[in-house]
Amino acid sequence: MVAGFFGRKSPAPPPPASDAKQRAGGASERGPRSELSTIDFSGADITRALAECADMVEVQELGAGIGAAYEEVAVLYANGSAREAESLLDAVLASEIQGAGEGLWMMLLDLYKLTGQRERFESKVLDYATRFERSPPPWVDLSSARVMPRKSDAAPLVNLAGELTGQAAPQLKQMETIGIKSGAIRIDLKRLRSVDESGCMQLIEMLRKLGAERVKVSLLNGGQLISMLAGQIHTGRAEGRHGWLLMLELLQHSGEHARFEDLAVDYAITFEESPPSWDPRLPTESAVAAATEEDAHSDDKVVLEGELTSSNNESIRKLAAFAADKQVIEVDCSQLRRLDFVSAGTLFNIVASLQSQGKLVCLQNVNAMVAALLRVMGVEQVAQVTLRP
């Protein structure tokens, strides 16, 4: 979905004159800006920059109209005022002013992810699904300050070998330490020769701890372990619960959805409790293989991550040098949590310059809060912006 948050693809031609009349404040119609901005974003005082530049920012409508609320929410979050941005979004959605389109809802849901408010997120997704008659976005905690490994930095690969029993505790503890330190880990299971309930319990507990630490875990070559577990579990016999849970986990990582669902039903019958749900975000073996293949091309993409501010936007400034010998520049923004006003201005200047040279910059997997600022600053007029799913 390319810039679906904004209701149209980007870059796009100017709106017709009839639409221009509906712009907030009666602003006159303007075409896409491709010239370099004359605003000076080099200062480190964000508050002063906002005050000096507020009248120079062109606010353009998206869909039913971006309006003052969109602009204010985007700038509040960019300026580090997440709580105030949330309060304003709540007020707008509650009053239904300006139609409260899907864009505002996506901003609020992404703001909950960015601030780690899962309960509030869950309370709103049903309203979203009912209003727009579509599946809501999944919960992903984006609040962690941890910087996930880049594709060029392959996750550590460790082997779980021999017997998966209670004696495997030291080996599992070492894996846990590696995973937490690295932020990601790949565990190869092909060398396992036997498994018992105690070993299953310890492996499940380790996976839960890594999940709590937001460590990306990939279980590889689990087919043999699945076969061993299948011979140990029996529908209607409420024993070996951790073996069941481990097998369900392995089926997710192997991408066997249908088999997972069948086993989940058997689990519910056997233990008279709800089984774990299928999590489409877990990396399957095929996805891990594809990511490994993509590693070879990791130098073809720029990564913007964390919170980029006027004092910490060197990665944005390096974009021009990276693009020197390229026509299409892909920028991975999946780990970009926030972009402040000054950094967004720097990004606009660089991207507009690249566009004037006939180059296309693609900002990929941008969260809705950052995307709103990019629209306010006009960056989406000179670059292709794709929202994160």
Task: Enumerate the strands of the largest sheet in spatial order, edge to edge or round the barrel.
Answer: 6-7-8-9
SSE run: HHHHHHEEHEEHEHHHHEHHEHEHE
Number of strands: 9
The rough form would be described as globular
Return the average pLDDT rounded to an integer. 78
Fraction of residues in H or I helices: 40-55%
Q: How many individual helices?
A: 16
Question: Could you describe the largest sheet, including whether it forms a barrel?
Answer: 4 strands, parallel
CATH topology of the largest domain: Transcription Regulator spoIIAA
Distance between the termini: 8 Å
Can you give a write-up of this model?
It is a single chain. The protein has 389 residues and is an alpha/beta fold. It has 2 domains: 1-140 and 296-389, 2-Layer Sandwich (Transcription Regulator spoIIAA), CATH 3.30.750; 157-280, Transcription Regulator spoIIAA. Helices cover 45% and strands 13% of the residues. The chain contains 16 helices and 9 strands. It has helices spanning 17-20, 46-53, 67-78, 82-95, 102-114, 118-132, 169-182, 197-212, 223-230, 241-253, 257-271, 285-295, 314-317, 319-322, 341-356, 368-376; strands at 157-159, 162-164, 184-188, 192-195, 216-220, 301-308, 328-339, 360-366, 384-387. The strands form 3 sheets. The chain has a 4-stranded parallel sheet with strand order 6-7-8-9, with helices on one face. Strand 8, helix 16 and strand 9 form a beta-alpha-beta unit. The termini are close together.
List keywords for this structure.
single chain, 389 residues, alpha/beta, Transcription Regulator spoIIAA, four-stranded parallel beta sheet, three-stranded parallel beta sheet, disordered N terminus
